[in-house]
UniProtKB/TrEMBL annotation:
Residues 7-121 form the Response regulatory domain. It comes from Methylocaldum marinum. One of its GO terms (molecular function) is DNA binding. Keywords: DNA-binding, Phosphoprotein, Transcription, Transcription regulation. PROSITE patterns: HTH_LUXR_2, RESPONSE_REGULATORY. This is DNA-binding response regulator, LuxR family. It comes from the Bacteria. InterPro entries: CheY-like_superfamily, Sig_transdc_resp-reg_C-effctor, Sig_transdc_resp-reg_receiver, Tscrpt_reg_LuxR_C, WH-like_DNA-bd_sf. The modification 4-aspartylphosphate is found at residue 56. Residues 137-202 form the HTH luxR-type domain. GO terms for biological process: phosphorelay signal transduction system; regulation of DNA-templated transcription.
Length: 204
């Protein structure tokens, strides 16, 4: 079963391979796009698109490894499954160092490929969710005033309002007001939730 909203991109210079893989994956319910070269793929797919990439490592024009590097430089976050026509340990090592999630030898068996794709799509979905959550956290943090950001650091360390006031040279009451405003802006109801959210933001 496919993961909704995610696409399996195939880049292979052999049209027969593209057609065969596409037919297999579509029969399994996956959304598939095929490309015969790296430049074709780069011209059509945007960094914000999500899914995974099945990539022939021995492409002409732009090799699979070079395309992997270009995608990283351009901000793509697609998990890559490399395909090769023959075992190539040096290239597989380079591929994994570049962030590939799998390296399979042609002709690849469906029982091997499909689980690999499902794992890659699950990883893509996880990365997308984490990125979306980080954007939400960044937006919440940006809504705080400089003073509130300063106070949040102390609250994240477990300081009480009284301790915050003493540390910053402000009254206990003023510290409480700031704390209440911070909690309201961040949408939390308890100090425990506030501390947990601050940790997610990377505040210690």
């Amino acid at each position: 079963m496919a993961v909704n909203g995610l696409t399996v991109f195939i880049v292979d210079d052999d049209p027969d391979v593209c057609d065969a893989l596409a037919a297999l994956l579509r029969a399994e319910g996956f959304v598939v796009e095929t490309y015969l070269s790296g430049p074709d793929f780069l011209a059509s797919v945007k960094p914000e698109q999500h899914g995974c990439l099945i990539l022939d490592i021995n492409l002409p024009l732009i090799s699979g490894l070079d395309l992997q590097q270009i995608l990283t430089e351009r901000g793509f976050n697609l998990p890559i499954i490399f395909l090769t026509g023959f075992g190539d340990v040096p290239k597989s090592t380079a591929a994994f160092k570049g962030g590939a999630v799998d390296f399979l030898e042609k002709p690849v068996d469906a029982d091997v490929l499909i689980p690999a794709i499902r794992n890659a799509l699950a990883l893509s979905y996880q990365r997308h969710e984490e990125k979306s959550r980080q954007h939400e956290l960044d937006a919440l943090y940006a809504n705080l005033t400089p003073r509130e950001k300063e106070i949040l650091v102390y609250l994240a360390r477990g300081y009480s309002a009284k301790q915050v006031g003493k540390a910053l040279g402000i009254s206990h009451r003023t510290a409480e007001i700031h704390r209440a405003r911070i909690m309201e802006k961040l949408g939390v109801q308890s100090l425990a939730d506030l501390v947990a959210l601050a940790i997610q933001m990377g505040i210690r």
